[in-house]
What we know:
There is one protein chain. With 112 residues, the chain is an all-alpha fold. It contains three helices and no strands. It has one domain. α1 runs antiparallel to α2 and α1 packs antiparallel against α3. Keywords: Carboxypeptidase, Disulfide bond, Glycoprotein, Hydrolase, Metal-binding, Metalloprotease, Protease, Signal, Zinc. One of its GO terms (biological process) is proteolysis. One of its GO terms (molecular function) is metal ion binding.
Amino acid sequence: xxxxxxxxxxxxxxxxxxxxxxxxxxxxxxxxxxxxxxxxxxxxxxxxxxxxxxxxxxxxxxxxxxxxxxxxxxxxxxxxxxxxxxxxxxxxxxxxxxxxxxxxxxxxxxxx
Length: 112
């Protein structure tokens, strides 16, 4: 029983911790594309958004200037690949699982 609980906590940690980052990637991209973030402050705004959504700061508290392109470390940014599908998938994963359990008659709201 303890192994199951530990595995479920690990899964929750992976999924929940991902959500702010999953949102952040495309929010930053959309703001760049629609001009809300000027080119001269892309990296600054990247870290402002990371602090706002993820509550993380640059390593060692250093200031990451515009000579860096930290958002580009995630492949999806320079590849112009949408990331929102991963965000939505993390949410739908559990909704689909619940629906399948209900359909199979294996869902007990008392254990949810």
